[in-house]
Amino acid sequence: LFGRLMFELPEEMGLIAIAVQQTQGKGRGGNVWLSPVGCALSTLHITIPLHSNLGQRIPFIQHLVSLAVVESVRSIPGYKDIDLRVKWPNDIYYSDLMKLGGVLVNSTLIETTFHILIGFGFNVNNSNPTICINDLITKFNKEEGTKLKALTADCLIARTVTVLERLIDIFQEKGPNGVLPRYYKYWVHSGKQVHLHSEEGPIAWIVGVDDYGFLQVHEEGKGVESVHPDGNSFDMLRNLIVPK
User: Fold this and answer.
1) In the prediction, which pLDDT does 156 show?
2) Is the sign of the CA dihedral 197, 199, 204, 209 positive or negative?
3) What is the structure's pLDDT at 232?
4) How many Cβ atoms sit within 10 Å of the Cβ of residue 214?
5) Using CA atoms, how far apart are residues 96 and 87, in angstroms rounded to an integer?
6) What is the mean pLDDT of residues 87-106?
7) Is-contact 140 149, C-beta < 8 A?
8) CA dist., res. 173 & res. 167, Å (int)
9) Cβ–Cβ contacts within 10 Å for residue 172, how many?
10) What is the predicted pLDDT for the residue at 244?
């Protein structure tokens, strides 16, 4: 039903589906995403003109969505120090310690318009299977003596979509440089050292993200290279960039 509707609606009209619980949640590379009650779960349809800043850099969409999720919380007055971060290419993390959300983007090009399906899910009020946003708020309140209120999934989905619309507008006007300073503010990788390909592989340092949303690493003696998100994953636990 969703797939049919997204092609029948006018391009200027968005479409979103919100679930209370998923039974067949999916991640990148066929991974399974557990989706108990308490998660914010949504699939959003948007259209992007091919001949636009974002249309020429479609991989950037997953980064904009991840940033929108983080800013949906940290842009609320009083919540800016809740340690919610983005992990390349499409994960939401508590600090650099634990995953609590993710983004999956599929695109279809019809004539000169990209139809984008954005699936995003993040733990809001469910402590299992990892940790949730309200756990972070409770922890912050205990440590700082504050009384920040718990947040709801519905509120954060709405805020995420609103922030995403603004980020897309900025990207279309200014390109990657319009959003990358905000992205780097919250990402977990700055200055991290990694091994390439295997634990015995060459050492490289993470530099940033290039103009197409691909991770840039600097390998000693070889300069800066880009790593494509569809062919690589970043293993936070083993500190590797590995080919899939």
Assistant:
1) 96
2) positive
3) 57
4) 21
5) 8
6) 91
7) no
8) 10
9) 15
10) 47
